[in-house]
Amino acid sequence: MMAFEDDELTTAIGSLGTIQVPSVLHARIQLHQEHLTELASALLAGGQSRESVRQAIEIVMDSFKLELTATIATLLEKKDAQ
């Protein structure tokens, strides 16, 4: 299977920017990164262009950022309620 270059994936994941992530979510983010790598490799192996794979990863990351931000907000609300 063709590998998606780490720098391209790192750039996409870097789009998380300065989101402060609670340590409880670190393992989940690592798992998401592994899944993105597998997805990118599978898409490339399936004949998708590098550009379409890059765009797909960016779309997934945008969705993940929204979900991650909502999860962090929920965790903070629960923490403040204690």
Task: Walk me through the structure.
This protein has 82 residues and is mainly α. The protein has one domain (6-81). It has 3 helices and no strands. It has helices at 6-14, 26-45, 50-81.
What labels would you give this structure?
single chain, 82 residues, mainly alpha, 3 helices, 74% helix, 0% strand
How is this fold's topology laid out?
Blueprint: H1 6-14, H2 26-45, H3 50-81
Measured as a percent range, the helix fraction is over 70%
Q: What count of structural domains?
A: 1
How is the biggest beta sheet arranged? none
The fraction of residues assigned to DSSP E strands is under 5%
Number of separate strands = 0
Q: What shape does the CA trace take? A: elongated
End-to-end C-alpha gap: 48 Å
Spell the H/E element sequence: HHH
Measured on Cα atoms, how large is the radius of gyration? 15 Å
Structural class estimated from helices and strands: mainly alpha
Low-confidence stretches: none
Mean pLDDT: 81
Q: How many helical elements?
A: 3
Write a brief structural summary.
The chain is an all-alpha fold. Helix content is 74%, strand content 0%.
